[in-house]
Write a structure and sequence with these properties.
The protein is α/β, with parallel strands linked by helices. The chain contains nine helices and twelve strands. Helix 3 runs parallel beside helix 5.
């Protein structure tokens, strides 16, 4: 196992003349939970999409489990890997989006096992054993055969988390997974993530839930205007707040 699960070096991303972020550097170690906070438009979600190789980036590198992903050098020129290679590299990460993006025509169990069967070519019965175990782990053992339309938003997100875990990724990415939920459903999803943290799951979490980030994180990254403006322990970020801009941002949460 690599000493670092994820290493981002001087990452730059833009659309036309619109700079999304620049010179982003970040490291995530095995079993570490890193939260990314910051105002809307600071590049947090796009950064996750670049790590997942769902977005192209113009400069810099992303190293997952010791190997650079997304791009390689061909005769001294930077070239993106083929989609076949990209797909194989994408398996290293699992992502849970803020949108409740389950397949509506599949039950909870079938949503979870789909990747195991189609991507990892696992036997259906073996995949279903894993799927049942994971749905029980997120307290949905009684909802195996329920369709998304019969599940609450919080239950749907827990199915999405189980689906991401099923692929056994090196790192789990969470993109504002509670933003589309009613307030009373937020806690049940955050509790699942807290348990994953206790179990030693490596995670990178974009969130606006400041108290949650303080409680669950080993390290917190503050992104602002497309840059990593501050990085430190929860104590350093939320209590000491040495940066004036960080203080200003956190004051909007009455933290």
């Amino acid at each position: 196992m690599s000493e670092l699960v994820l290493k981002i070096n001087n990452l730059k991303k833009w659309y036309g003349t619109n700079k999304v972020f620049e010179d982003v550097c970040l490291e995530v170690r095995p079993k570490e939970v890193v939260s990314i906070i910051g105002p809307s438009g600071s590049g947090k979600t796009t950064l996750l999409r670049c790590i997942m190789l769902l977005e192209k980036f113009q400069e810099g590198s992303i190293i997952l489990d010791g190997d650079e992903v997304g791009y390689h050098n061909v005769n001294g020129k930077r070239k993106r890997y083929s989609e076949k290679v990209i797909s194989s590299q994408r398996i290293l990460t699992g992502i849970v989006f803020q949108s409740l993006n389950l397949f509506p025509h599949l039950t909870a169990l079938k949503n979870v096992v789909l990747g195991l069967i189609k991507v990892k070519h696992m036997d259906k019965s073996e995949a279903e054993k894993i799927g049942i175990k994971l749905l029980e782990r997120v307290d949905l053992g009684e909802k195996l055969h329920s369709y998304p339309s019969k599940l609450s938003g919080g239950q749907q997100q827990r199915v999405a988390i189980a689906r991401a875990i099923a692929m056994n990724p090196k790192i789990l990415l969470f993109d504002e997974v509670t933003s589309a939920l009613d307030p009373e459903l937020i806690g049940e999803v955050l509790n699942v993530i807290k348990q994953l943290a206790k179990d030693g799951t490596t995670m990178l979490i974009v969130t606006h839930e400041m108290s949650f980030a303080y409680e669950v994180s080993d390290k917190v990254v503050f992104m602002d205007a497309g840059k990593v403006a501050d990085i430190g322990t929860p104590q350093e970020i939320f209590i000491e707040r040495n940066s004036p801009r960080l203080k200003e941002f956190l004051s909007t949460f009455n933290a």
